Amino acid sequence: ATQNRIGIVHCVCGKYQGLDFYIYPNEKLVFGRGYELADLVFEEEQIDTEHCWIQYNNATNSYFICNRSSKGIYINDQMIGTYNAIQEAALGTRIRLADTEQIFEIG
């Protein structure tokens, strides 16, 4: 049943390499340096307190990524620098946090 689907984000490279993270419907997976704000916490100075988030829509089986950082994110090697820019992301999309080795893949 569609309502039971959950999103998956896989860490390809970096601190959480090899791990899968699950996104429940209408929940956000938050990446950043802030322990209070972020689900996945990083130490790099290029990574902001709340750097970006990924949301999963189980009705449409689609993912959305929001950049919350002045230093930006890379989506499939395309720099997204606009604050609060939200982009839909297909399965297999790769996300890199600023100019770091922290790389994640959707699905």
Given helix and strand content, the structural type is: mainly beta
Largest sheet: 6 strands, antiparallel
Give the end-to-end Cα distance, rounded to a whole number of Å.
Answer: 18 Å
Task: Work out the strand percent.
Answer: 35-45%
How are the strands of the biggest sheet laid out side by side?
Answer: 2-1-11-10-7-8
Overall pLDDT confidence: 95
Number of strands: 11
Low-confidence spans: none
Order of helices and strands: EEEEEEEEEEE
Rg, Å, rounded: 13 Å
Helix coverage percent of residues? under 10%
Number of helices, counting only DSSP H or I runs of 4 residues or more: 0
Shape: globular
List keywords for this structure.
107 residues, 5-stranded mixed sheet, globular
Description:
- Helix content is 0%, strand content 45%.
- The protein has no helices and eleven strands.
- The protein has strands spanning 7-13, 20-23, 28-32, 40-41, 52-57, 62-67, 73-75, 78-80, 86-89, 94-97, 103-106.
- The two termini are 18 Å apart.
Helices and strands in order, then pairings?
Layout: E1 7-13, E2 20-23, E3 28-32, E4 40-41, E5 52-57, E6 62-67, E7 73-75, E8 78-80, E9 86-89, E10 94-97, E11 103-106
Parallel strand pairs: 3-4
Antiparallel strand pairs: 1-2, 1-11, 3-5, 5-6, 6-9, 7-8, 7-10, 10-11
